[in-house]
Amino acid sequence: MEIRQALPSDAAAIHALLRPYVSQRLLLQRSEAEIIELTRHGFVADLMVDDGPPKPIGFSAVEIYSPKLAELQCLAVHHEHRNTGVGRRLVEECLQRARELGVMEVLAISSSEAFLRSCGFDYSLPDQKKALFCQLRPRLWQEED
Q1: Which contacts (CB < 8 Å, 24+ apart) does range 118-123 have?
Q2: Which residues of 30-49 are buried (b: 16+ CB within 10 A; e: fewer)?
Q3: Residue 42 in contact with residue 59, Cβ under 8 Å?
Q4: What is the dihedral angle through the alpha carbons of 10, 139, 73, 3, rounded to the nearest 10 degrees?
């Protein structure tokens, strides 16, 4: 397995990796344009195949909001390769990119609490800041229910 910088040409493969998570309502649906934008600070995990081109098996990106804050986004690993370290390596690459860009804090919004905590995330920062949310409109899937 190899981690590499994502490219705009990876958009279709990334979309395929995200699709099962979107259908399970674990990730937000992204347009092709949004995925292409995320490749700027995104990473793909490729499975190296002896008799063919590498097969994308994971993706994650870090969206940089300011020198103070970035967000880990779209972490997805193909179901056959979960619990093998692929997700952790993708998170590490995203955090390293944020470090290189001088970002102070990276947030993650996810239902994978135990995994993110094992990667160094926590509910509050050392100075006890907490993220609070106010939902202004229902998500599309909430409107359908």
Answers
A1: 118/88, 119/88, 119/91, 119/92, 119/95, 120/95
A2: beeeebbbbbebbbbbbeee
A3: yes
A4: -40
Predicted TM-score (pTM) of the model is: 0.85
Q: Which amino acid appears at position 103 of this protein?
A: V
Separation of alpha carbons 12 and 28, rounded Å: 16
Tens-digit pLDDT profile for residues 49-93: 888 889 999 999 999 999 999 999 999 999 999 999 999 999 999
Q: What is the pLDDT of residues 102-114, one digit of tens each?
A: 999 999 987 788 8
Q: Are 30 and 74 in contact (CB under 8 A)?
A: yes
Alpha-carbon gap, residue 65 to 90, rounded angstroms: 19
